Amino acid sequence: MKIGITCHPSAGGSGIMATELGFALAERGHTVHFVTSEPPYRHNSYRENIFSHYVDSVSYPLFRTPPYSLALATKICEVAEEHDIELWHAHYAIPNAAAAIFAREMLPVEKRFGIVTTLHGTDITLVGSDPSFYRITKFAMERSCAVTAVSQWLNDETMREFQLKRPIKTIYNFLDHKKFNGNSLTPCQLGCGDSKIIMHISNFRPVKRVTDVVRVFNRVLEHVDATLVMVGEGPERMAAVGVAKQLGISDRIKYLGNYENIESIIPCADLVIQPSEHESFGLVPLEAMACRVPVIATASGGIIEVIEHGVSGYLCEVGDIEHMTQCAVEILSNPARAAELGERGHQRAMSGFRRDDIVTEYEQVYSEVLDMRRTGKAAVLSA
Ligand code: GMT
User: Fold this and answer.
1) In the chain, where does the domain assigned CATH 3.40.50.2000 lie?
2) Domain 187-352 -> CATH class
3) Is the pLDDT score of 52 beyond 90?
4) Overall average pLDDT of the 120-141 stretch
5) Rounded CA gap, 252 and 274, in Å?
6) What is d(CA 340, CA 343) in angstroms, rounded to the nearest whole number?
7) What residue owns the CA closest to ligand 1's atom 7?
8) Ligand 1 atom at minimum distance from 173 CA
9) Which of 237, 229, 145 lies closest to 189, judged by CA?
10) Residues of the chain with pLDDT > 90: what percent?
11) Any idea which of 33-47, 103-117, 262-276 has the lowest mean pLDDT?
12) DSSP assignment, residue 297?
């Protein structure tokens, strides 16, 4: 198949999944064209069957901000026409699905592609449910030929919020198991000596509650010699720095910034903590589980479909610093329990979220959409 993919190229789960899916599809012989504003995160070398196109966004004194979405729609249209794209896969509803619909409308009828939209979470929970984007998010889903969500929780939330007439298909995120083959750094390379390492990885947005990470870490220090390693960048980083300063623990925290090969750094940790307000899926916990590193997360959103509490990690209530501290101290001071959680997490990550299985599920959706396109059953194609 000739497939187009749009995603946000920044360090975020939706862009990472879209990129990994593109790689997997290309390995299966499909031709994949990425259309993004810059090279997708983690896509930094030549790969067969993969082509990249960047959106030109012209600044003009009249615009406060250049209208990126229109430039994106134009680029999708151009790429689709030139390369006979049959199917466009938009990751994240805004603006990617909406731009794909606009692009399809600009093409002659015989050139119109099928559109699959994958919802990743905040495109529904934070962006799409905001009144300023609600109608266009609903429209984008209604005019897609198929919509998928990365967890059943996100699927249910979307149906509740948008009352769509057609069902959404749940397709979980996946891991490239070859990457989690044990080639890791050794803990001393992080310069943390013999202390235990607690790690947090995110884009430091408010939904990640990074100050909770610092507060839990502060309480853990009452019981265990530990270092907190913060991986990522984002708007709440300075809030975390401020809380650490107030608590007098700044010298126990390392901020590494963005780190692409996450599979080489997670195994250095004794514990990964993700105390988010909600996670539609939780790619970082899944990656930690694959690395046999125990995870503490919050029982909010689709993450409960990834971690089984007390078996493959711990799930606490949002903001429950006390419970998260107890779980962390147990993991850091009881190596046998930590190993058991790590092993069960590894088994779950390696069996339930396999790249091959999930990519096949996407291929099935693509085939159904292309059948609709061929038989003219997709009314939306000519709407
Ligand atoms: O968490 C973010 O802010 C980034 C966001 C994204 O779009 O990249 O992540 C969402 O998509 C990921 C991949 O499907 C999921 O693993 C994350 O749970 C989800 N984030 C939230 O729901 C907060």
Assistant:
1) 2-174+355-381, 187-352
2) alpha beta
3) yes
4) 92
5) 19
6) 5
7) 14
8) 14
9) 229
10) 82
11) 33-47
12) E
